[in-house]
Amino acid sequence: MIKDLTVGKPAKVLFLFALPLLLSTVFQQLYNIADSMIAGRFVGEDALSAVGASYPITMIFMAIGLGANIGVSVVVSRLFGAKRMKDVKEAVNTAFISIAVLSILLTALGLLISKPLLRLLGTPDNIFGDSLAYLNIYIGGLISLFMYNVATGIFSALGDSKTPLIFLIGSSIGNIILDIILVVPIKLGVQGVAWATFIAQSIAAILAVTALALRIKKIETEQKSRIFSAKMLKSLSYLSIPSILQQSFISVGGIIIQGLINSYDSSSMIAGYSAAIKLNTFAIMTFTTLANGLSSYTAQNIGANNFIRVKQGYKAMCLMATAVVVPFVVFFAAFPNAALKLFIENPSELAMKTGRDFLIIVSPFYFSIAIKLVSDAILRGSGRMFPFMISTFADLFLRIVLAYVFNEFWGSVGIWISWPVGWVASTVMTVAFCLSGVWKKQGKRKSSDTALEQ
After folding, report:
1. In this predicted structure, what is the pLDDT of residue 333?
2. pLDDT tens digits, residue range 309-333?
3. Is pLDDT of 446 > 70?
């Protein structure tokens, strides 16, 4: 169901719009969590390490899909808010053609460099074969990953957060069932986990794209929209590329940190970190999803020249994000052992200590990163990509540099301390940008018909 986010009480509109998005995040993260949980509990600690070792690389591809989702969502939201339905159709057509071509190129590139990347990360020999097999199967499903992310971004831009949730629930349940079948009775090990994700993700992509095509076809326009537009591709790229870079920088940071963890040459430490980082990613993706909903809301209202509603939405989403943070902090900081044992059946003491230290040090600062992501959403939804990128660079730079510096003094605990430092510094910057009103000035300039020619 297409919904106009420019009318109604902002807090209520955002809550009803964001709730299905939050549930979608829960089920989407079940893909990765189920992989690690089943690998760790039914195959062993080495299997969890194998999945975890390839995780930072898979996150780069996920970053591209998520960045494309965000960029396309903002453009379509802006057009939809301005009631430019012909351009909405043109943007959707262009987005799908472009992402299909990109996915083919990245699949070929990924298969070529997967082995060297794992070697570069210092992946231990005892888990290298399984890590490579998992990564290659994952790369083979990139077209499904990207097409699904673009489809869900467009659904959100049109104010529909429920339809993608339905598909995601079905595919997530299917993924878990396939994981169990392929790993336990068939005993395909790590490869079974990868194939389960591949199949479930492909089905979700086909259903989402088909449903969206039928929805877009029903939108009536006076003129026929073009199948592909170079001008629209430029507009999509203007917002998508910075979003992709932001997500990719985070993933590259993850790769560098993974390399630092791998330098300890301990599969137990890798297993503990892998379990903890899965939990951390679940939390961060939840906050990111809330922020993405605010981006669509912001873009629609800027398209309709309604700036007061954007301010009201920002305040409402800050409160909502803070409320969502609380259960994560309580669970991860107070019960880290219980959280980690979701992934590891018989954990070693080193694995537990590694994961426990990470969660206890990092999770209290979720309040900071949640506010940063919400503030990012305002900048991104208004097209203010420069300040958006500055705060992202600051976070990445601080976390990487300080991880190496602190590691020399405090070992692995020092690596975990670098996370909150980067988060707090970048949060201060992003909030300052939002409070300065730069998003409003940019929004006014970009709300004209030349907005999407940037």
Report:
1. 93
2. 989 999 999 999 999 999 999 999 9
3. no
Nearest to 120 by CA among 184, 75, 26, 54: 54
**Which contacts of 329-333 are long-range, i.e. CB under 8 A and separated by 24 or more positions?**
329/363, 329/364, 329/366, 329/367, 332/279, 332/283, 332/359, 332/360, 332/363, 333/359, 333/360, 333/363, 333/364
Find the mean pLDDT for residues 443-452. Answer: 42
- What amino acid is encoded at 450 in this protein? T
C-alpha neighbours within 13 Å on the C-beta side of residue 249 = 18
Longest dimension (CA), the chain: 67
Rg, C-alpha atoms of the chain: 21
d(CA 238, CA 75): 9
For 175-206, b/e burial (b = at least 16 CB within 10 A) is bbebbbebbeeeebbbebbbbbbbbbbbbbbe
Torsional sign, CA 329, 254, 291, 208: negative
Tokens at 247, concatenated: 């997500």
Q: What is the pLDDT of residues 156-192, one digit of tens each?
A: 888 888 888 888 888 888 888 888 888 888 878 888 8
What count of Cα atoms within 13 Å lies in the side-chain half-sphere of residue 266? 15
Start-to-end CA distance of the chain, whole Å, equals 30
pLDDT tens by residue, 73-118: 888 888 888 888 888 899 999 999 999 999 999 999 999 999 998 8
Decide: pTM greater than 0.85. no
Euclidean distance between CA atoms 449 and 89, whole angstroms: 16
Question: Measured between alpha carbons, how far is 370 from 244 in angstroms, rounded to an integer?
Answer: 19
> CB of 168 within 8 A of CB of 27?
yes
Q: For residue 227, report the phi and psi dihedrals to the nearest 5 degrees.
A: -70, -35
The pLDDT assigned to 444 comes to 46
Among 237, 148, 155, which residue's Cα sits nearest to residue 452?
Answer: 237
- Spell 304-340 as b/e; 16+ CB within 10 A means b: bebbebbbbbbebbbebbeebbeebbebbbeebeebb
Q: Which DSSP category does 452 fall into?
A: G
DSSP secondary structure string for all residues of 21-82? HHHHHHHHHHHHHHHHHHIIIII-HHHHHHHHHHHHHHHHHHHHHHHHHHHHHHHHHHHHHT
> What pLDDT sits at residue 445?
45
Q: Please tell me the chain's helix, strand, coil percentages from 3-state DSSP, rounded to the nearest 5.
A: 85, 0, 15
Question: In which band, very low, low, confident or very high, does the pLDDT at 451 lie, cut at 50, 70 and 90?
Answer: very low
